[in-house]
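dumping this here so i dont lose it
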């Protein structure tokens, strides 16, 4: 018999029949997703085609109290200021009820037509579609779809589970491998360009661990969590183990917001790792992607 004093996971009915895959995710995620889904459905109504969970919550590398909840919502219609305001209010109500997830929701509201397009490319002519996103350190805002978001779509397709609505396999089309490699290369090149402006340990951890994920994807054509990619990279390039190990420690520890300048040896290792990954990116995508 279940202990009535222990937290219980929501039944699949909390999400609907399409959300049964969520029941294999961490209990903390299962417990809060119905409330977040209710807020999103209240704001969007029938504009919400589906919602999909991906990232560490489904990969098995979720770190309690640290990892974000990564979600992608397929939507129809315009993301007008009124719609964005309703979503923003819903997010804040959710955070008020679940303060432990404040600044730990990474949610993209993407056009359903773009998510289901077969090419994964942006529009060849005219204005790009508009998505909205809220993420740690970045309040809800709308912006044109760019190459950066192609990687999120790729991860949602390859690793995601359906939380609500249209099944993921019907809503999110695969992204061609060449498009993924080009997007990864652009991502790591931009990381190198912006690394000098990073000031806190959490930012340095993000740069280092994202570089590890990029290296793994460019080398093996597969994706992995930050922790898995770090383990893989430190075995492949033992010379960078100190900065990779430090990044893992910063991500999980209380030093995440520490703005003390990096020790010179770790700063040099971070830059060396970025340079090495960028060389791989340039080699693997020669003729496909530039620095712009």
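and the seq i came up w/
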């Amino acid at each position: 018999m279940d202990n009535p004093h222990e937290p219980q996971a929501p039944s699949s009915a909390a999400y609907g029949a399409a959300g049964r895959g969520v029941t294999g995710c961490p209990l903390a995620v299962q417990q809060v997703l119905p409330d977040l889904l209710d807020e999103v459905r209240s704001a969007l109504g029938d504009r919400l085609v589906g919602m999909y969970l991906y990232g560490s919550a489904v990969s098995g590398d979720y770190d309690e109290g640290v990892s974000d909840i990564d979600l992608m919502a397929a939507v129809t219609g315009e993301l007008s200021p009124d719609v964005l305001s309703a979503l923003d209010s819903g997010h804040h109500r959710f955070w008020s009820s679940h303060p432990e997830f404040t600044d730990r929701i990474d949610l993209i509201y993407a056009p359903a037509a773009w998510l289901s397009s077969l090419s994964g490319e942006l529009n060849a002519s005219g204005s790009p579609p508009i998505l909205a996103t809220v993420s740690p350190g970045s309040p809800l805002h709308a912006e044109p779809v760019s190459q950066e978001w192609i990687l999120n779509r790729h991860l949602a397709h390859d690793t995601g589970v359906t939380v609500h609505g249209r099944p993921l396999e019907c809503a999110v089309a695969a992204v061609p491998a060449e498009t993924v490699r080009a997007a990864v290369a652009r991502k790591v090149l931009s990381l190198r360009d912006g690394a000098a402006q990073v000031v806190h340990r959490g930012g340095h951890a993000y740069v280092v661990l994202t570089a590890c994920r990029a290296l793994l994807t460019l080398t093996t054509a597969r994706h992995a969590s930050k922790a898995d990619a770090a383990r893989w990279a430190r075995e492949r390039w033992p010379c960078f183990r100190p900065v990779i190990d430090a990044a893992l420690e910063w991500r999980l520890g209380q030093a995440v917001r520490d703005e003390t300048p990096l020790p010179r040896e770790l700063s040099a290792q971070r830059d060396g790792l970025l340079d090495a990954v960028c060389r791989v990116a340039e080699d693997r995508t020669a003729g496909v992607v530039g620095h712009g």
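The chain has two domains: 12-175, 178-284.
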